[in-house]
Amino acid sequence: MPFEIIRPIRVFLSEDKQLFVALKNIFGYYPGNIFLYKLAFRHKSQAIELSNGNRISNERLEYLGDAILSAIVADHLFKMFPYKDEGFLTEMRSRIVSRAQLNKLSEKLGIDTLILANNESNNVFRSMKGDAFEALIGAIYLDKGYNFTRRVIIEKVINQHFDLQDLENNDTNYKSRIIEWAQREKRSLEFVTLNEVGHGYNKQYVVDVMVDKISLGKGRDYSIKGAEQDAAMKALLHLEAEKIVT
Amino acid sequence: MPFEIIRPIRVFLSEDKQLFVALKNIFGYYPGNIFLYKLAFRHKSQAIELSNGNRISNERLEYLGDAILSAIVADHLFKMFPYKDEGFLTEMRSRIVSRAQLNKLSEKLGIDTLILANNESNNVFRSMKGDAFEALIGAIYLDKGYNFTRRVIIEKVINQHFDLQDLENNDTNYKSRIIEWAQREKRSLEFVTLNEVGHGYNKQYVVDVMVDKISLGKGRDYSIKGAEQDAAMKALLHLEAEKIVT
């Protein structure tokens, strides 16, 4: 196909040759609209100010990429774990797309070296690397569409940099995880069985996790043990969202 | 095409004829794999128990649909509002996919009448209708793929049931919204300018929103006013996530 011949020539002549090549090495394809990718690497500390006063950086692409990444990971986990419930899938996803993981991933893939930011930014903006990774996903999505992005994320990111089995074995006992955390942080922790909902076959227990007497998450299940796990998982998600546990 | 002739015959002969027709009326197409859609309407109060002890309901599909819907709405808003920042886009999306909106939408589209649940469920599970709507999106995605789902959501849901202009005009002043809320609920509210980050051209202000002396959200911007809006928006997202404000 003529495109396959023309593309390398265009790349070779481009002033963005280095970026073309870096992206080809990371993801295995040449970008179409290189401006999207350049924007993805522009941290807000290097925002461009337009004549209308708008400031342009990778923040909008990060917003988009974050949502696309969540959807792709949700889909992948849904299919990889056909017998696991939505609590498990939610927790697995939050491990894959946690800020700490995305920062690490950005370094592993060499994305961090492509970021355009002020010198001091790396210290001030602790999530800069992960944010750029998300922005890059936004750029790939706009450039190549959902199905292409999905393939790239699964083949070049998840399959190569995550061991789902490992991630699964690692601390899926939410109750023991939150107990360990509370002991370490010297917080009071209590599991309170609140009430039952439903009747007969559908009877479920509701359990509340109290940290320092404040409710952090209610769980519901057909057994008290299950409801405790569910509640602990929700409390952990809450603590992770607050960046108290990572 | 032969499929176009065969499809109506298959529908007519199917024991799920009613569901086929209802879905065609709502979304304008006949479902492929009807089992996915039947599962989407099966509330956990009517879960099926398998021989291995697993219970099957629409909860996994809801997890998937929630992520897919977020991605589609993020993409749509990104393109509809090319000059708005990610804070605006995040707030707009949270208004579209709020539990209250999804419940309402479920009723408008007539999805709620298709739900299979125990009689008491409607009172016990307040988000049952919205959950089924999300599960349905998960089913469409698995049945027809991302691009098809995206078109359906934009054409049959967003364009017909949301006025983005209205949604935008409605209370984008986050600071005044949280002030009104605090007055109504008799909570103490304070905006505290914490510090500045960056230098010269890149100097930004950091503002903290304190409700009853507890920090609910830090905002950052190039002006104190902007940082206050950002902080108020984050505090509102926090309160919405906790279902304190809807």
Give a short overview.
2 copies of one chain form a homodimer. With 246 residues, chain A is mainly alpha-helical.
Number of separate structural domains of chain A: 2
Q: What is the number of strand segments of chain A?
A: 5
CATH architecture of the largest domain in chain A: Orthogonal Bundle
User: Structural class, from helix and strand content of chain A?
Assistant: mainly alpha
What pattern of helices and strands is seen along the backbone of chain A?
HHHEEHHHHHHHHEEEH
Strand order of the largest sheet of chain A: 3-4-5
Amount of beta strand of chain A? 5-15%
Q: What is the mean predicted local confidence, pLDDT of chain A?
A: 87
CATH class of the largest domain in chain A: Mainly Alpha
CATH superfamily annotation of the largest domain in chain A = Ribonuclease III domain
Largest interface pair: A-B, 38 and 38 residues
Helical content band of chain A = 55-70%
Spans of chain A of 5+ residues with little confidence (pLDDT < 50)? none
Principal-axes geometry of chain A comes out as elongated
The termini of chain A sit apart by 48 Å
The oligomeric state is: homodimer
Alpha carbon gyration radius of chain A: 22 Å
> Biggest sheet of chain A, in brief?
3 strands, antiparallel
CATH topology of the largest domain in chain A: Ribonuclease iii, N-terminal Endonuclease Domain, Chain A
Count of helical regions of chain A = 12
Could you outline the blueprint of secondary structure elements for this entry?
The structure is a homodimer of 246-residue chains.
Chain A (H helix, E strand, L loop, with lengths): L1 H12 L3 H11 L6 H7 L7 E2 L5 E2 L2 H22 L5 H11 L2 H11 L11 H4 L3 H17 L1 H16 L2 H6 L4 H11 L4 E9 L6 E8 L2 E8 L2 H18 L5
Antiparallel strand pairs in A: 1-2, 3-4, 4-5
